[in-house]
Amino acid sequence: MGSAVLSNREEKSLLVIGGGIAGVTAALEAAEAGASVILIERSPFLGGRAIALHLYFPKLCPPECGFEINFRRLKNNPRITVLTQAELESLRGKPGDFQATVRIDPRYVNDRCTLCGDCLQVCPAERADDFNFGLTRTKAIHPPQPMAFPAAFVVDRAACPEGCTACVAACRYGAIDLGQAAERRTFPVAAVIAATGWEPYDASRLVHLGYGKLPNVVTNVMLERMAATEGPTAGKIVRPSDGNAPKTVAFVQCAGSRDENHLPYCSSVCCLASLKHTTYIHALYPEAEVTIFYIDIRTPGLLEDFRTKVATNNHLKLVKGRVGKIEEDPETHNLLVTVEDALAGKKLTEAFDLVVLATGIVPRSGGLPAEFPRDEFGFLTNGTPGFYAAGCAKRPEEVAATVRDATGAALKALQYAMRSARHE
Amino acid sequence: MATAQPIEPDVGFLKQVMALGAHDAKKCVQCATCTSVCTLSTAETGFPRKQMLLTQWGQREQLLSDPAPWLCFYCGECSKECLRKANPGETMMALRRYLTSQYDWTGLSRLMYRSAAWELGILGVVATVIVLLFTLPRNFGFGLLSQAGPQALSSVMLNKFAPVETVHLADTTLALLLGFFLLTNAARMFRRLTRDDGIPLGTYIRYLPTLALHLFTQARWKGCAAGDAIKNWVRHLLLASGYMLMFTLVVIFLPWFQVPNDRLHWTSFLGYYATAVLLVGSGWMILDRARKNGEMYRFSHLSDWLFPTLLLLTAATGILVNILRVQDLPMPTYVMYMIHLAIAVPMLVVEVPFGKWAHLLYRPVAIYVEAVRRDALARGA
Fold this sequence. Notes:
The complex is a heterodimer of chains A (424) and B (381). With 424 residues, chain A is of the alpha/beta class. In chain A, 24% of the residues lie in helices and 26% in strands. Chain A folds into three domains: 2-105 and 182-197 and 364-422, FAD/NAD(P)-binding domain; 118-170, no CATH class; 202-361, FAD/NAD(P)-binding domain (3-Layer(bba) Sandwich), CATH 3.50.50.60. Chain A has nine helices and 21 strands. In chain A, a hairpin with a 2-residue loop joins strand 4 and strand 5. Chain A starts with a helix and ends with a helix. Chain B folds into two domains: 11-103, Fumarate Reductase Iron-sulfur Protein, Chain B, domain 2, CATH 1.10.1060; 115-378, no CATH class. Chain B is built from 21 helices and no strands. The A-B interface holds A 208, 254, 258-261, 295-296, 320-325, 338-342, 345-348 and B 29-37, 41-43, 46, 49-50, 81-85.
């Protein structure tokens, strides 16, 4: 059995698309079972959405912890080829015998980079920090995120001033090459795992909730970055309008989810996330009054216990009723939330310092080979031999479930690769 | 908290309301977005989420004593924002249809709202009676057309053909009749809304101006959230003014209003205004409904069509009577006059007390009762 995989690995690999927690897990599990793996990730770093969290389930530990172990496993495993800023350009052939062509965009920084930061001192250009959802800005040359793997800076050439080479001159390791060009590489591949992940629903489309217009309306993913120790506010959750600590915080559940005008499905993790965010807020400000406005609090399985525990806090109110409208006092930038408390049957307008929209999960399933079946909402489904989906591209799920799912997808892909190798 | 009571759902009621337009009411998951986006909904009187639940659970009795369905002016913001496309706005509309059918004590409304055949049939019967009054041979004591005499056939003499005293007597009787049914139906609604209130009579008397205000101005509509609320309100106000004016002219001022060919009375100018707004207003509403222009017009029940269509036809035939009269075409004028009445009379005796038109009293009564309740609540608190 093992020999089949081993002989297979000489010529054909598994292709894993997406370097988030799902993709990294699938790649590691398959490689540690003996397969060779090509792991491609379109951003300049591995870790995806999970590495942007402050703490994650089930143990509420910082993701740096888990990812440190995973990255060590990656580094120590010669059977995995990691390509960042890489996207699948074409997949030719048939399942079991594909030719995958990958386009790798230039990083403009090679592996001689030591993250010393001398270039940051001289770089004259700034850009919005997409990793931190624009809460702060970075230089055109910058570390892609605090614990970047691969550990090298990256240059956003679109932000560079015309003809500027300041960073090249400043780098004493010769690590910067602004003339780098995109390259293409082709790999023989037996099976493909798509772990392309998700993106938060664009909250500005929820026009009544004011995101994008009212500074103190933020999203749940932004709150994770604010809470993160190495985040844009160094771990402080503050009002973007004045940098003050909020005394009252409202969470608006189903901001886009379960809504046929937006995302018709339940994103399944946002209730849990808001309960978790409540613990972030109370860790910083034990007296802050938090209200979660919900349709139903959905915390399946063991997570029910977490809900029960968090809900005992006297400074947390759970109110059944989806928020229909958020307005602002233009003087103070305080927010007025209009909602009906459906259990009390009372419509109310309440003031809050900060409002967090629990935005839902949108699958990132575009640009994949057509053989990947998709459901009506764009989530990938399994069904075509040789094509396997894992993680939030397949269904909205929290990190622990994603890891289990990715392990299963790795096994499926391995089985397929072994079978097709045997039949050759 | 009161002891828990098992809920007895009236399934038949739910089915009826669904048949009257609440097709999607069962999709509601009680998220309450509708109530929070509704600008007419207040802390004390939240809707339409509560009514969605009461409908789903078949709580007929509670809804019969609930003014909320009439407090909604159907801007449709709730339906637009509804997460599950449950169309709460249309459920409120269906509830109004259902309640109209229930507040009427004669049972006629119930028949009309349950079947289109009944509704059209009743209108047709009244129209037939009118036609017969004109066309039956004179020895039956009717036959207005043949009574006109040779003089009236050589030149248009409307007052010879339909003597103003006769017509005046007839339409006063008509007004009293429809007024009786409308008022008794509205009184029945009022009793249903207030019977468990225990609010002193004095409060009800103090709030009578509210009743009058909303009867004549429909001012509450202005508070709707949708961008076209003001347009819809003004248009409705003009239409209502034209309707009320025309009704007054015909019932009270007919001896001056129906004048010989060549004379104008000041009431004529009021008549022109009323005709113009009736024609334009109802035509515009029909157009908007046909084009589904706006949430309010996305779904249409037969009663929604009949209402402006009969108005439009009444105004149009009224104008034709005048044109034919000015052209001095006696027989065509008389026939058109008959058609005019065969549309206007059923519209008034059937639609006003038993049809959609009854909202002209149901709405202000509900707003009035709600204002009284709010006052009592504030005093109690």
